[in-house]
Design goal:
By secondary structure, the protein is of the alpha+beta class. The protein has 15 helices and 23 strands. Strands 16, 17, 18, 19, 20, 21, 22 and 23 form an eight-stranded antiparallel beta sheet that branches. Strands 3-2-1-4 form a four-stranded antiparallel beta sheet. Strands 6-7-8-13 form a four-stranded antiparallel beta sheet, with no helix packed on it. Helix 2 (73-89) crosses helix 4 (218-225) and helix 14 (477-510) packs antiparallel against helix 15 (517-546).
Amino acid sequence: MAAPFAVGTTVKLPDTCLPLVHLRLRRPFCSPQQSRGLRPQQWRTTTVNRSELRASIASGQQHAGTMQHHGTDEFKQSFRAPQAEAESDQGDKFNWARQWYPVAVADQLDPTRPNKATLLGRSLALWRDPDSVWRAFEDRCPHRLAPFTEGRVEEADGLLSCSYHGWRFDGEGRAQQIPQADDPEAHATAIASKRACATSFPTTVQENMLWVWGEAGAEAFIHSAASTPAVTAELEALPADTRVFRIGKPYSRDLYYDFETLVENFLDPAHVPFAHHSVIGNRYKETSGFCHVRPSPPETEVPNGGFSFDTTLKSFGPKPNTLKIQYHPPSLVRYFTPRDDGGFTTMNLHCVPTGPGRSRVTYSFFSTVENKFTKLGSLMPAWMEHMQRHLVFDGDHALLHIQEQIAAREAQQPGGSWRKSYWMPTESDRIVTAWRQWLDSQGSPTWVPGAPEPPVGEELPKSLLLDRYQQHTKNCPHCLKALRVFKALRVVAAAAAVFCAAAALVSLLTQQLQLTVPALRLPATLAVCAAAAAGAWTKLTAQVEKFYWVDYDHQEKR
């Protein structure tokens, strides 16, 4: 695992309402350009507990508010120690809270306002501070618990403002302004209190994803500095001049089924030609569903205690396709194909446990190979590509939601478990079995106290399960922009249809209803234009509906 800090790390000691220090960490920003592999650099900001840092680095000396460390083994080890202690405290169980989660695509967030996200049952407000650093606060103002996501990022100073009483906060979570405290001394006392601080979570931006640590508080910044997000590590190992292609834009969607079900589904390639017939694959192909699955060789490294299986698929294309299907805890499932020249192709599926019975996925695709797919991906508009992704997730949504409700009901029966409910006799089920066994040994995600639990066994209607607008469109700038354009064009088409129809009628009446060919030429032309505009309005209306809701019936997929 790469060290989460670099040579020449700078540690700053600001005055804060918490005993914190500020680390300025330089590391590669792993997001490749869409058509070039030159990866830019980005500063990553992390905050750690001052007293713990001093204890762990006994030789460090403060000088003018700054300490310099030069990447020594002792320094690196001092930051790994808290994570090792945390793992020891947890025994053999996986600590779901002390992990990085990709809660949003960074360039799809609105930097002018707080953005809403959910992680492990906790609501978050994501916002960009005056230093252009993305921050994650618990979505509650410390004053009277009003949500920050109903607030605003002030244009004048870039601070986060609560809309209830106007309290303003900086990127560290410190209250900077309390309008109700008009006495300067009282104001200084109020903002200096720890209780005036917003709850802040560590963040980092890598591979164009905004990652949020699952815990808050001073110790969380120590632990997060010792951990690396589940990014595509192979990108950093490539030569600097390697071209890396991102096929299309990342696609995210909120889902009405649990994180465990989401990961399980992605680890099951055998379902694709059946659940997604005519979208991906063909259920009637003789080899559909066949998978040859075996554990990857021991030299295959999977970070954070995950697993990897070498899988040969015969469902797609004229030739068998061999790749590695991997789970990188806590959030990444990937279909990874290494190449002999050191390059690779990878489909990354980032899974986020948003809450009980709810999850979020972000899909992205990288390749060092330039072919017709990479070229097409760079040319296709993002909204059009997202429409194709909708078809895939629409095909799964009802199946997985109902499957999960059945499993939940059976789990409540005496002796109920996946081992009793599932019958998985074929080789294609090996990866799903490995996932369930991993969960048995490591434990399921843990939610914050009070996270809303959906009723067991209650099946939601398709109107909710297939609601594209709430699950995707309203949070996707590409699709929102396209939706506005199609709505505007629909208004133009309607106006054109009405105008041409009225003009045709007026033209006919002014010619005193003469039925000769010369007299009918203009009215007929206008009538044709009116019909064409009406047809365009109909098609545009159908396109607008695709941003909101489209039914998916497996029986109609011939």
